[in-house]
Amino acid sequence: MGMKNDLIQPDRGQDAIAIHLVNKENFTEFSKRLSGPQRAALAAQKFTGAGYQVGIVPDGDSWFAVGGVANPEYLSSWCMAKLAEQLPAGTYRRADGEPGPALHGWQTAQYRFTRYVDDKDAEGPRILLTTDAGKIGPAVAEAQAVALVRDLVNTPAEDMGPAALEEQAEKLAKEHGAKLSVTRGDALEQEYPMVHAVGRAAARSHAPRMLHLTWGAEDAPVLAIIGKGVCFDSGGLDVKPASGMLLMKKDMGGGAHALALASLVMGAGLKVRLHCLVPAVENAISGNAFRPGDVLKSRKGLSVEIGNTDAEGRLVLADALTRASEEKPEIMIDFATLTGAARVALGPDLPALFTRRDETAEELLQAGKEHDDACWRLPLHSAYDEWLKSDIADTGNAHNNAFAGASVAGLFLDKFVGENAAGEPIDWAHFDTFAWRPVAKPGRPKGGEALGLRAAWHMLRARFG
Questions:
Q1: What positions belong to coiled-coil segments (predicted)?
Q2: How is the chain split into domains, by residue range?
Q3: Which CATH architecture has domain 8-131?
Q4: CA–CA distance, 293 with 290 (Å, rounded to integer)
Q5: Is the pLDDT of residue 121 over 80?
Q6: How confident is the model at residue 198 (pLDDT cuts 50, 70, 90)?
Q7: Are 105 and 80 in contact (CB under 8 A)?
């Protein structure tokens, strides 16, 4: 599964095939430097310099490659991804400059999910050289974090239940010298009652738990990262239709993002005290499933009337946000595959971003723009809070109209985010992400996907790096 970690290597003058990057505007000028047979070869491949085109040009006993990009002067993460997908295995270097941000897509283009298939006939790696050796480590770490999200999300629920998610967290903890504490059973019911309620109907092998990873100096600024870890979502007693259940192995995508972001924070040694919490559950159906109309108590003490058992992600997140708030974090970021409403509004590519502070939203949006991980801010419009009113409890978990579903879910979560050490509302950002790519793009295969991860990472690196 995943991706090799040596796809980017330092350029020490070793043999490598040249890659020339051109666009439609300068392709004619580039062609003038070629021989007649070379121009004919590109013409036969219908190469015009358009974006993502790949051409192979004979050069004596060897050959070189040509790639079409929008602008050779300003590369994106994905400019060379098609080359990494289509060129033969081998070692390559860009002929007229550095790959720069294209280092990322070169790696992610070679991601494969092979857990259930025989990959012995797969072609070998395409290696890209760079003289900017200082960028290799960070670029590899970032691509590996994306691959981790993809691996976890692509794995079916039978093999990626709460216990398997715990194993992944334990692996990260050992790798980075962090501590993982796991709350389950009677202790879970007492300490995280809504996590227990959502997960109690699952089989014993998929029993609910709270994963809490801690790392870093205890006197450092506290960074809290939370991820929704619903390993499969049937909808509960408000059961989903078959079409709605088909992709629900990805409902732990928020937890996957949280673990991947935590790995980047620890790997880079950011000067923070990290608290990463993932409530890991399966929202199953059995005789002891929580019901529509039930009133659940929460860790914070608020009572929650259940209007819909399929609005379960916000329940497990609420207890996790409450626990993280107890650490008085300087900033708190959560990821969740929370609402279909966010997808209706923004489609599959754009995570919906909610923040309490405008400046935090701007930092995240700018980091996403600069690193090809765009997000879109939606409002926490307080007037809609009345839609969560309950006649018998402090709040409902779902509203009964079809309006602003992503914002209303965010308002529910906001009730469980506390104050920082200065007694001010915690600086909190919430990503309602899809964690899935329904159609492949260069460097971005169909399947599990990290959406919002790089925006959050580069924002945090700018703050704490």
A1: none
A2: 8-131, 140-464
A3: 3-Layer(aba) Sandwich (3.40)
A4: 9
A5: no
A6: very high
A7: yes
